[in-house]
Amino acid sequence: MSGELSLNINIKEPRWDQGTFMGRAKHFFKVTDPRTVLLSSDTLDEARVIVEDYRSGIAKPGLTEDELWRAKYIYDSAFHPDTGEKMFVIGRMSAQVPMNMSITGCMLTFYRTTPAVVFWQWVNQSFNAVVNYTNRSGDAPITVNQLAAAYISATTGAVVTALGFKSLATRLPPIASRFVPFAAVAAANCINIPFMRQRELKYGIPVMDENGNRLGESPNAAKQAIVQVVVSRIGMAVPAMAIPPVIMNALEKRAFMKRFPILNAPVQVGLVGLCLVFATPLCCALFPQKSSMSLSGLEADLQERIRQISPQTTTVYFNKGL
């Protein structure tokens, strides 16, 4: 590209149209790219400077549009969209594939004994607690007590569900027991995410007009955001926890797997990873990151305030979190 880079590129929004599933999928394939986890702090900080300078009307000399978008996606992968803080590395969406690949693979491999079920559900919920806190919506702090309550509730719910289904599965065909981890994960997501984001349910998340002007905080918007995130998270788990058990059930009957049982875990982890590479971005793309709801869906007092300060607003927007 010749000449100076235009300052009219809207990097506050994703590069692709977020009104379509395909546009959101392309966006999240970039955001969840596991290679960005390996980037150094210097590279992340450099991307932050490029993005923040560009938003202020300053383009680095020689910067191309492709380089700008690359910096924007590096920035998005590592910094919280509401607070601007650098996120804990294993809580970033770019760490979802390698982390979940390892944990889910082990949950699906070591499911036969009660201690193994308890241990891997605990590991999974510990990881989920970090992810849910890191990717919470809004800029409101969460207390240590709230974190502890969410963590204990989700872990207990996952373990109880897993052990309950494990007991039930003893009376069902052998393959049924392979789906115990999925049932536990689905139940835990329904507990963990609302608990981890309970402050949002109580006080609300920021809602904005189409130009990004903050209009107030809405618990109703928080409810919609959390439901969408729960559905997406369960959706992510479906391929990774439903497809490998079927394949492994068939493979374990083969002579070479009986001869080399040590291959069980790495094959399982590999299958899970293959599923997650596609399931993670595609399920993140089920709903727009910048979600919306009608003004009439907000609390009555907030509706009244918005009508006074912004009479033309009929739809509000908010970051749903991940």
Descriptive notes:
It is a multi-pass membrane protein. It catalyses: L-serine(in) = L-serine(out). The chain crosses the membrane at residues 225-247, 267-287. The protein has 322 residues and is mainly alpha-helical. The protein folds into two domains: 21-86, no CATH class; 91-234 and 288-319, no CATH class. Helix content is 60%, strand content 6%. It has helices at 21-31, 41-55, 65-78, 96-109, 114-134, 144-169, 180-196, 198-203, 219-251, 255-259, 264-284, 300-309, and strands at residues 205-208, 214-218, 290-294, 315-319. A two-stranded antiparallel ribbon has the order 1-2. The radius of gyration is 22 Å and the shape is globular.
Give the SSE string: HHHHHHHHEEHHHEHE
Alpha-carbon Rg, integer: 22 Å
Number of domains: 2
Which strand order does the major sheet show? 1-2
Characterize the biggest β-sheet.
2 strands, antiparallel
Overall mean confidence score, pLDDT:
82
Distance linking N and C termini: 35 Å
Quaternary status: single chain
Percent helix range: 55-70%
- Beta-strand content estimate: 5-15%
What's the quick description here?
By secondary structure, this protein is mainly alpha-helical.
List the helices and strands and how they pair.
Elements: H1 21-31, H2 41-55, H3 65-78, H4 96-109, H5 114-134, H6 144-169, H7 180-196, H8 198-203, E1 205-208, E2 214-218, H9 219-251, H10 255-259, H11 264-284, E3 290-294, H12 300-309, E4 315-319
GO molecular function: monoatomic ion transmembrane transporter activity
Transmembrane segments: 225-247, 267-287
Subcellular location: Mitochondrion membrane
